[in-house]
Structure formats: C-alpha cells, structure tokens
Amino acid sequence: MSTREAYLEKMKAQIDEWNAEIEKIEAQARGAQADAKIEYEKQISAMRMQREKLRERMRDVNEASEEAFETLRESVESAWDELAKGFKAAADKYR
Question: What residue ranges carry the coiled-coil annotation (predicted)?
C-alpha cells in the first residue's frame, strides 16, 4: 500500500467515525423537545459541513499525482486538523 493509499484509508476511517457520531446525535435530536431540536439540527448541519470538507480534501488527495501528493499533504494535514477540532467541538456539545 502506498503512502497516499494509507493516507486515504486514514481519512476514510475518520469520515466513518464522524458518520457514527452524527448518527448518535441525530438519535438524541429525535428524542429532544422542539426548541432543543433546532439547536441539534444546527450542530448536525455544522458537523455534516465539516465532514464534506474532509471528503473534498480526500478527493484532492486521490486525484493528485504522487509528486503533487507530497506537496498537497502538508496543506491537507493542516486543514484536516482544523476540521477535526471543529467537529470535535460540535460533537462534545452533546456528549
């Protein structure tokens, strides 16, 4: 497995983890009162946006040549860290 393939697998695993977290919060939202549901939906929407941004980065990495991947990797790592922080903050609000 190449470095890029391993990196893509790592990103996919993160997306899968985030999907599970979103599903958990969606289940909590279904049981919430109407006013709380609005707040849950805002958070779920923000989390989905973070997930989609990571998917976009994943596509960029997948489409890059091996040479471009090494250059792209550093900027993707930085963006990924920021996305993960935002997602964690949103998820922590409902744990």
Answer: 8-71
With the C-alpha atoms ordered 88, 55, 16, 71, is the resulting torsion angle positive or negative?
negative
User: Widest CA span of the chain, in angstroms?
Assistant: 52
Coil, strand or helix at 64: coil
Range of the domain at 42: 3-92
Six token digits for residue 4: 């890029």
End-to-end, the C-alpha distance of the chain in Å comes to: 36
pTM of the model: 0.72
Closest to 43 in 3D by CA, of 27, 17, 22, 19: 22
Helix (H, G, I), strand (E, B) or coil at 32: coil
Contact indicator for 61, 69 with CB cutoff of 8 Å: yes
Please say whether the beta carbons of 64 and 83 come within 8 A: no
SS3 42: helix
| Count of structural domains within the chain | 1
